[in-house]
Batch of 2 targets.
Target 1
Amino acid sequence: MRVSDVVSVYTHPEAFMTEFVTSTDGTRLAYEREGDGPTVVFIGAAMQFRAFDPRTGELAHRMAAQGFTAVTYDRRGRGESGDASTYHVDREVEDLAALIEANGGSAALFGSSSGAVLALWAAAAGLPVTALALWEPPLALEGDGGAYQRSLTERITAGDREGATAVFMQDMPPEWLEASRRSPAWPTMLTLAPTLPYDAAILAKAEAGTPWATQWAAVTQPTTVMTGAETLPLFPAAADALERSLPSAAHVTVAGANHGWETDAMVEALVRAFGPSR
């Protein structure tokens, strides 16, 4: 089973000054930063960008109040960020390298869902990452041979954004898709649909058959893999497997449900993960 990300249908209640940085391939990335202290970069999941993800925006705001520099950004192809004509996971790793360089030269990474797996690829590539916090990485213990990625790509290539979005939400309760179609968020979701294969590629690379202990042997940073107290079986199973596979990882449970966290509990967990005592 592949469980997709829960999509927020609200907009960010507060906006900070948008800044821009250019990635290695020339793609311009939009980001915000708040606070003063060790840098934490927040990596969004599929169907998320700053103006469409208030939960992460609120979390970043709260972490800034805890003495961190909180950086949120629009991943390529979303929001105010640009994109390239072709996609590769390495380009998103280069995006994170540019963001980290522009914000102090080193950073902890918080990744949500597929963004958590992107954080792992960034650390494995040798970026100056101090620590990782991974929220419910949607990794299957047995890959599907790339079928999910191909299904999304075929629909996007055919111009079928609604079909791609339905594939993305296929493991969610059916009423969620119907509610999304009726919501004001639906046009934005269709705008984001061409980026869904990006997240699928991030997951497919991890599920290609090579053991995670081998793929991520270089991820020696302190890593906290987090799952909600009320969640689907896929997430704890993947978190347990990552705890066994990564050199310095711990699986912790945080108050949350439906692939989302409770903000107070998450702030406490991130301060423990990224604070001086860690």
Target 2
Amino acid sequence: MNKYTAVITGGSKGIGADLGQRLIAKGYDVVSLSRGVPEWSDARLHHVEVDLLDAAATEQAACEIAAAHNVTHFVHNAGIIWPNLVEEVSASDLTGLTQIHLGAPLILLQAFLPAMKANHFGRVMFNGSRAALGVPTRTAYSATKAGIIGMARTWALELAPHGITVNVVSPGPVQTDNFWDIIPKGSGREADLAKRIPVGRLGITRDISNAFMFFCDPENSFVTGQNLFVCGGGSVGAMSL
């Protein structure tokens, strides 16, 4: 196969944008799904505006993308945190994060699978989280990010005979808008957290896109069903935000 097309949810900025730019540099076409206009542009970037919290809108976008593109790579990078202590978590928190972290990728993959199976090739990836191991105020977030791991492992088993790999990258604290929505940029709390990470610093978007680039590689066909923590060692010991 000479041409690759990657669909990246949340590809408008942060980790998704960095990954998209790197894939384009390698000759890929990239389709970004997000609620806002991408903060970057390229002739090989195609933007689809969609709210992934809306299942019907997600399904419509999925069908349109599948009809217009031969999707070879699918990266579900989009996510929301919605932090709350357990006493304040609502059922709607779980419903919403289940849709964006689990429902949306299911809808999208189902649309892309016919082409992947026909090509006997595909790369499916999730942006998970170290929070799947547990973090205070993350009831809904941790639960749904942990669910990603189980879903990815199941898909890996089902799709392996079709030449399709499925893997998860689970970041620790990374300097993105989602992180700064929780911890103020440049604050003492941010500096304190960096000190408690074994490698002594917070992650950057390039740390995470490096891992995705490995899983994207067409030559890496013998790695599937894996969850790679990219967290500076934070998954080894206790660390809270």
